[in-house]
Amino acid sequence: MQQQSRSEGEFSAYRFQTIEQTLQTFQWFASMRSNQPVVYDPQSRLWQVFRYEDVNQVVTDYSHFSSESIPGFSENSFLNGTVVATDPPDHRKLRNLVNQAFTPRAVNHLSGRVTEIAQELINVALPTGRMDVVADIAFPFPARVIAQLLGVPDEDWDVFRRWVSEEENTGQPVTLGTVIQSRQSMEAHRYAFFSRLLKERRTASRDDLISSLSVAEIDGERLSERELISFCILLLAAGQETTKNLIANALYLFTEYPAVAEQLRQEPELMPNAIEEILRFLPPVWFTMRRTTSEVELSGQKIPANAIVLAWNASANRDPAQFPDPDHFNIQREPNRHLTFGHGIHFCIGAPLARLEARIVLPMLLAQLKNIKRVPDVPINVRTGIVYVIQSLPITFN
């Protein structure tokens, strides 16, 4: 595979491949972990990191690996100034806001409505005996849940569909310039949308997250309108995209391993562990970007200050030093300290909601859809970048 030489634009923009081509990347990861676990690519000007121990240090040690001033990540994007793109002490104030949104009470309070939304979507497909997992379940399900959490009217969830369909384009390769222009347009629409909702809630509060945010105080001070709206946009992106990819990846693996799907039907109590193994084995998030604050050393390799580091979470998840028999899909794997959601202070803000949604919808799908099979002779195309996105997954069932 010619994975080693990628331009900086290719890491920032999207790439479209068949799933078979993409899964070959795991072979490259294994080679790099053994031969070049920390390597500088002069073409992309990125330091790439592959082993679990090193990736864990990059995503956890914020004193040496900063989330700020990273081109295409914490610069020139809506992420600038958000919780995922700031370091302490600013990070603490914003993380406290996240904690307000994702308290156990706030997340569990959604369980009933999450179940209703899942059943409504399943009911549409049940009589037909077929569905596109992505279009019919994986995309609309988390979009509607996020709408419920934020207090966006259900009828407005199609706004989210338009934003995502614009971002995913037509499935053809795109340039970094095209991506930036498209994102800037979407971000302007998103900002205006949430600005309107925030203004409405300040005059007529409701029992939703936007109303709570409108009066939130962190460390004795109110957050600015920009901080609040950026958080809403981040929550939309993190909560929707992560769950969408997790559900699609799960159904792909269930069709690849039908015995596992049947085991989960018979032993639904294994589902929480199965979700963690899905996240490890075929993660929705593949890498993390950081900037070194000083010279650091990883696996005997010195990385200079102000270098941009790309840490491959997906490679760390297959490191045999951490996971025995890492290429085996084992839903009873214990322990399973995968790095799909990161670690430390920047642990993924959408993780609690993604896990809740998966624990609800996946058992429902397995219980109600029997003999699930992929439609034959239909290639599965994947969009890769920081996230791993199955574009379409048509299935049949009884």
TrEMBL record:
UniProt entry keywords in alphabetical sequence: Heme, Iron, Metal-binding, Monooxygenase, Oxidoreductase
Pfam families assigned to the protein according to its UniProt record, in alphabetical order: p450 (PF00067)
Keyword Metal-binding: yes
Coiled-coil stretches noted in the UniProt entry, renumbered to this chain: none
Domain of life: Bacteria
UniProt KW Iron keyword: yes
GO molecular function ontology, one term from the record: iron ion binding
The family this protein is said to belong to: Belongs to the cytochrome P450 family.
Name of this chain's protein: Putative cytochrome P450 YjiB
Record organism: Dictyobacter arantiisoli
